[in-house]
Amino acid sequence: MRRVTAAAMIGAALLLAGCSSSSSSSASSASSSSSSTGSGGGAPVTVTLGFLTNITHASALIGLKEGFFAKDLGSAGTLKTSAFSTGTEETTALLAGQLDAAYVGPNPAINAWQKSSGSAIKIISGAATGGASVVAAKGTTSASQLKGKTLATPSLGNTQDVALRYWLKQNGLATTATGGGDTFVKPTTPNSAAVLEFKSGQIAGASEPAPYDIEMVKDGGTVLLSEPGVTTLLVVTQSFLSAHPAIVADLLKAQVQANDFIKSNPTAAQADANAELASFTGKALSASIVAAAFKEITFTDDPDVSSLTTDASQAVSLGLLKPVNLSGIFDLSPLNKVLAAAGESQVSS
């Protein structure tokens, strides 16, 4: 699904982006310009970190639950977190100076880069790949059976929305940004609402990230497409990176430790993510749903550069993107220093 020509993979960016979650928390009003001070022996730097409350952002959830962020920041930094319901909201907060760093999907990262003409953010690490699926009603075995049906996605132009529309296009089914075409795609927020609509038969399926795709399968759905490629990235504002490189290194150290913990302690990691998720959403998931969600996700610090470009290229082909030069969107040198210090393989941009 994600294979495109080399020419098509040259720079593109989403006009509309976002990866939704079940949380409805709003952005913190703190900004790096108003709350951060120097990291060299002065007052602690306040770091505002955003993330979405879903399993594809488990690196952030586990980093909080296990205290990796607090431990690695130490006396130099104080962490302030903000949970969001969509990646689009995170992009807005980043561009408004309300976040210093954020776990986001690939399309919100590209959107922030495009809207700021390459001046707002840098992608400094990966966090997860995989963990999203197109799920349809029981008995559906091919895309052709979805003609005339309604499917949900988190938001217009987000990663799952583009993946679904591109897959339908490859199978001869046209969609429109206004919900028309051969198959009707309906942006639905929060993700949990799409699960309920699927269960009640209001929609024929959806393209959703974990755990929502897993919940739809539990409700009798069939996976038609397991969406490959990057799902979650860690970005930081360029102003914060320039002013506080040591604090950014501490954030990256915590990110690496969180993903290492997932690999070495999978059962504990699943429990941590579920508990932290419940603290934001008010309701824990069943252990079996969490386990199935973790099984379909690869938690990796590698940002999977080629799949980011592929996401953008597919959206261009759907008419949802403006071409943009993505050169320079990555700064992986701080991550590679942290990986080297931990004795782990470095990544490449």
Short description:
By secondary structure, the protein is an alpha/beta fold.
Account of the protein in words:
The protein has 349 residues and is α/β, with parallel strands linked by helices. 40% of the residues lie in helices and 19% in strands. α10 (245-264) crosses α14 (333-341). The chain is globular, with a radius of gyration of 19 Å. Residues 1-40 have low confidence and may be disordered.
Q: Secondary-structure blueprint of this entry?
A:
Elements: E1 13-14, H1 32-35, E2 45-52, H2 58-65, H3 68-73, E3 77-84, H4 87-95, E4 101-104, H5 106-115, E5 121-130, E6 132-136, E7 150-153, H6 159-170, E8 184-187, H7 191-200, E9 205-209, H8 212-218, E10 222-226, E11 230-237, H9 238-243, H10 245-264, H11 266-281, H12 287-295, E12 297-298, H13 305-317, E13 321-322, H14 333-341
Parallel strand pairs: 2-3, 2-4, 7-8, 7-9
Antiparallel strand pairs: 1-13, 4-11, 5-11, 5-12, 6-9, 6-10
